[in-house]
Specification:
The structure is a single chain. By secondary structure, the protein is of the alpha/beta class. Helix content is about 45%, strand content about 20%. It contains 11 helices and 11 strands. Strands 3, 4, 5, 6, 9, 10 and 11 form a 7-stranded mixed β-sheet that branches. α1 (about 5-15) packs across α2 and α2 (about 20-25) packs across α3 (about 30-45). The two termini are about 50 Å apart.
């Protein structure tokens, strides 16, 4: 393979018609440029230039070879530009905000492979309530965040969904039939309100359904604590399926007769949307999850 500088020199000579000017453009002396052209002609075994008193002109072979040289150099520039873009996308940091259950259950398997694929991208995890996540996105404290039930008009990248389940003690009357439960029935019973550190919880869901939780006996942020209180007979609860262990002695999880879901979506802050590392994360998740962007 010939020296790429020699090819650039040949194209510069074709553009300017002067070896001296082309040599200056390529950072070479006139003597070195003349030697480089001679080496090209020797290696290609064809005459490329005809030297005239005040300029040089391409031979017919030279014109054809220069045409291909231009195409080759243009492709090389495209490759180098792509490599530079890829490098900038694969280095940097991402401030990722989420509420606790997403960090503990939803994100780890997704981010594990991302970290292996992009070791030079630093993932900084900011953990808070869903309202704090929204505030961090608005204030540009976070580049991207996990949002619950993002509005249809908001651009988001779906991560999945989670079904809300009614949870009772195994000896509770509702547990005997193992039948789907009406939310209105659940709302009238002694209730353990579990928030999971999120604004979107049974209380808000009840309000959206035109209901009210009639008898809230306890309000806790930890799902595990809520399950313990339900098992002890303090009340029933409404808890996302993903946080209920598969082995739950003393508990019964029942679907709602009209199913309710919480949807997870990644939303970018204004600056995060233009961040190359964030775009690398979003592309990775889209490829991994094979889900469309909602906008």
């Amino acid at each position: 393979m010939h020296n790429l500088l020699h090819w650039r020199l040949l194209v510069a000579v074709a553009d300017s018609g002067k070896i001296t000017q082309a040599a200056r453009q390529c950072g070479m002396t006139q003597s070195a440029a003349s030697q480089a052209i001679a080496q090209l002609e020797d290696q290609l075994q064809t005459l490329l230039l005809v030297r005239q008193p005040h300029s040089v002109v391409l031979t017919q072979s030279g014109e054809q070879i220069v045409m291909h040289a231009r195409a080759m150099l243009a492709e090389l520039d495209t490759i180098q530009h792509y490599a530079q873009q890829a490098k900038s996308a694969h280095v940097g940091k991402i401030r990722l905000a989420s509420f606790p259950s997403a960090f503990s259950l939803l994100l780890p398997p997704l981010l594990r492979q991302f970290r292996r694929r992009y070791p030079a991208i630093e993932l900084i995890q900011l953990e808070g309530t869903d309202l704090e996540v929204e505030n961090w996105l608005a204030q540009e404290t976070a580049d991207v965040g996990v949002v619950l039930n993002p509005e249809p008009e908001r651009q988001s990248y779906p991560l999945g969904q989670d079904r809300w389940l009614a949870v009772t003690a195994s000896h509770h009357p509702l547990a005997r039939g193992r039948q789907p439960v009406k939310f209105s029935t659940l709302a009238k019973l002694p209730f353990v309100l579990a928030t999971g550190g999120c604004y979107l919880n049974a209380q808000l869901l009840a309000q959206q359904a035109g209901l009210a939780l009639a008898d809230v006996r306890a309000t806790v942020s930890d799902w595990g604590t809520a399950l313990t209180l339900v098992r002890e007979g303090v009340g029933v609860s409404l808890i996302p399926a993903s946080v209920i262990p598969t082995d739950t002695p003393g508990l019964c999880a029942l679907p709602l007769s009209a199913p309710l879901y919480r949807h997870f979506g990644l939303v970018c802050s204004l600056s995060g949307a233009s961040s190359a590392p964030v775009q690398a994360l979003l592309q990775y998740l889209q490829d991994r999850l094979a889900l469309p962007v909602i906008s």
